[in-house]
Amino acid sequence: MTTDDHGVLLVSLDGAVATITLHRPDRGNGLTTELKERLLDALANVGDDASVRAVVLSGSGRAFCVGQDLGEHADALRRDASTAFETVERHYNPIVTLLAGMPKPVIAAINGACVGAGLGFALACDLRIAADTAKFGTAFTGIGLTCDSGLSATLAVAVGAARASELVLLGEPFSAEQALAWGLIGRIVPADELGSAAAELAGRLAEGPTAAYAEAKRALAAARLPSLTDVVRGEASAQARLGMTADHQGAVDAFLSKQQPRFSGR
Question: Closest by alpha carbon to 88, among 136, 11, 151, 164?
């Protein structure tokens, strides 16, 4: 096995399996610009590498990914709220389209908190396996935003429209057991067995008919209406509009101050 350490991202190769690990464990693997750009590069590289036949996406420490790093986001809002959401088009949209469109199987190994864009990333993968200690949440409306990272489409496909509406509008966290019962993940394993279980599953896929898997992914994507490309474009526009609201800007400040946000609908 070989491992490349990019500081905030680790990429390891074990035979035909590539494992990409978000590596900001002290910040819940919150997504900074550096981490998003490293992840984009890594996904493009493993996607183009014919020797890689299966990919695992996971996180370091106690979280899979808690979504956008709100400290960096707050700085972007203070500089210019009108440009703070350019990251959706520059980073989030291509990340999820690379995950969903990669011509090989991608497994999300969900080791802990999986929230916001982190949940969107997991749902863009083909298979999801979670530690029994993992926790999930949409989180967006809690800071005055709508979904991004394709979540508005992929969540509804995974759990159905009625439950997706509850999870997005109420924003309540849910457990790995609930995620399994609702069809959001495929299996649960003890936390200390997640790495080996994901590696075993990836190894099995890497030995399979990769070309057939790629065609199956395309067929499944084509059956989803509207297309993920259209969904993420619409999400980006909505996030940019909401980024200018007092509700969102106040909620970010409240979150960073560990206070309860107050919403006025403006």
Answer: 151
Domain 2-256 superfamily per CATH:
2-enoyl-CoA Hydratase; Chain A, domain 1 (3.90.226.10)
10-residue stretch averages of pLDDT, the chain, 266 residues long: 86 97 98 98 97 98 97 93 94 97 97 98 98 97 94 94 97 97 97 97 96 93 80 87 89 88 87
Cβ-Cβ contacts under 8 Å for 212 (sequence gap 6 or more): none
Spell out the domain ranges in the chain: 2-256
Amino acid letter, residue 199: A
Rounded-to-integer distance, Cα 228 and Cα 93, Å: 9
3-state secondary structure the chain: CEEEECCCEEEEEECCEEEEEECCHHHCCCECHHHHHHHHHHHHHHHHCCCCCEEEEEECCCEEECCECHHHHHHHHHHHCCCCCHHHHHHHHHHHHHHHHCCCCEEEEECCEEECHHHHHHHHCCEEEEECCCEEECCHHHHCCCCCCCHHHHHHHHHCHHHHHHHHHHCCCEEHHHHHHHCCCCEEECHHHHHHHHHHHHHHHHCCCHHHHHHHHHHHHHCCCCCHHHHHHHHHHHHHHHCCCHHHHHHHHHHHCCCCCCCCCC
Give the up-direction half-sphere exposure of residue 218: CA atoms within 13 A in the CB hemisphere. 8
**100, 105, 233: which is closest to 157 by C-alpha?**
100
d(CA 172, CA 136): 9
